[in-house]
């Protein structure tokens, strides 16, 4: 007891160590080895050039810009979903990779349930939320957003023969399925007496409306069209009522959610959004999934 452990010398980065040895040889910064003639001065200048060269060559790779990890649901087609090989695919994944190419950054996407999106971002589980998240004032109290990268509206889908009384605050007693977020916000605000079933993802919601466990569903109109109505299982279902984009719940459009302190990343992504819009990249990706420009006016 009471013995002091000997302390090992702290390791130096390779470039710094090599440069230090060279400096020791010629006396740079040490007060030793001062040159006395022009020949020595020439040799000293050559050595200093060598030091600069190895310092650059041995700069750690980690000094480059860090990779970016985005969270998405992987269950919200056509924006994000699981491909046949299990990888995460969709409009947002292709668009995100296009943004990252403009930024000269490597980007990866991971799957995250909706309820864990903002908590996961705040504890730095990932760097951004790229999951069709609407830019709303309520969310901006916790996180920041990029500029929008698309705008959409929500709608009701039900069997062709269904009758939905939109004037009734209980929607005629129908059981309505939806997903967390802006769609849930609108239903609870507009139809406070309605029977609402909230699902963690759209796939669970689709299964229940097809099986009859709910009478109708309410969600993003593009996602409903692509994920249900255009699929074989969507036969016999259709849109009911008008598209809805009420600002209080649906906000300013869809943006990438970021931590408030990550202003540099936000600015870089905003610049990338502008660039892919301007050079035709956005249109090329958009046209693979949609028949019109979902960016909006």
Description of the molecule:
There is one protein chain. The protein is of the alpha/beta class and 297 residues long. 37% of the residues lie in helices and 20% in strands. The protein has 10 helices and 13 strands. It has helices spanning 14-26, 38-57, 91-103, 117-122, 182-190, 202-211, 221-229, 247-250, 263-278, 281-289; strands at residues 68-72, 75-76, 80-82, 88-89, 107-111, 128-134, 144-145, 154-159, 175-178, 195-198, 216-220, 237-244, 254-258. The strands form 3 sheets. It has a 5-stranded mixed sheet with strand order 5-1-6-13-7. Strands 10-9-11-8-12 form a 5-stranded mixed sheet, sandwiched between helices. Helix 5 links the parallel strand 9 and strand 10 (195-198). The protein is globular and about 55 Å long. The chain starts with 13 loop residues before the first helix and ends in an 8-residue tail after the last helix.
Note the main attributes of this structure.
297 residues; alpha/beta; five-stranded mixed beta sheet; 13 strands; 20% strand; disordered N terminus
Q: What would the average pLDDT be, to the nearest integer?
A: 84
Helix content: 25-40%
Strand content: 15-25%
Q: How is the main sheet built?
A: 5 strands, mixed
Using only C-alpha atoms, the radius of gyration works out to 28 Å
Helix-strand pattern, N to C? HHEEEEHEHEEEEHEHEHEHEHH
Unreliable stretches = 1-36, 50-63
| Shape, principal axes of CA atoms | globular
Q: How far is it from the N-terminal to the C-terminal residue, by CA?
A: 74 Å
Number of DSSP E strands? 13
